[in-house]
Amino acid sequence: MSQNLVSLSFPQADIDAIDAALATLEEKFARLIELSVADRRSLVKMGDKSEAFCRQTLIVLDQNRTILPPNFDFNEAVQDLATLDLLRSRFQRLRQLIGKADDTEMALGSDIMSAALDGYALAKVSGKGAGLETLREAMSARYSRKPKTSADVPA
User: Fold this and answer.
1) All residues at 6 or more sequence positions from 144 whose CB lies less than 8 Å from its CB, including other chains
2) Contacts of residue 115, Cβ cutoff 8 Å, sequence gap at least 6
3) Which helix (H) or strand (E) holds 116?
4) Is the N or C terminus of the chain more exposed, i.e. has fewer CB atoms within 10 Å?
5) Into how many domains does the chain fold?
6) 23-63 residue pLDDT tens
7) 3-state secondary structure (DSSP) of residue 21
């Protein structure tokens, strides 16, 4: 095999522990929300630069509560900030773990694809006889090309 980016195996006990940990995370994070694409687009977003503004504004408002109208829920804004501070490092850890999971999934797929391509090349060369013709034909379907029509060719 020409490529081997990752080689992993997990004992069943580890898989069971991972599944239990994921179930715990799902249970404990059940109160998290999921936004639609339209909701995401319409939201006012707090980025890195605006976070300092938001924090400073809440400090000023706390010192001047008399300017707040009765329908302004200052305590909710303070609670939201505290919750963000509490969860942010955990979200970062989850993002790092997801990044590693995505990279590992990509590497495993690439290793499999590389091995399949090597195997296909071997079957193509020595596939005559030995019952490999059917396998070689099945694999060749991945690379079958349809002839370009005049609609496919740019003007």
Assistant:
1) none
2) 1, 3
3) helix 74-126
4) C
5) 1
6) 999 999 999 999 999 999 999 999 988 999 999 999 999 99
7) helix
88 falls within a domain: yes
Looking up tokens 């400073």 gives 56
- pTM given for the model: 0.75
Gap between the Cα atoms of 70 and 61, Å rounded: 13
CA atoms within 13 A on the CB side of 69: 2
Q: Is residue 7 situated within a structural domain?
A: no
The whole-angstrom separation of Cα 93 and Cα 26 is 15
Least Cα distance to 51 among 85, 79, 74 occurs for 85
Instruction: Give the H or E element holding residue 62.
Output: helix 48-63
Q: Is 26 within the bounds of a domain?
A: yes
Q: For residue 53, how many other CB atoms are within 10 A of its CB?
A: 10
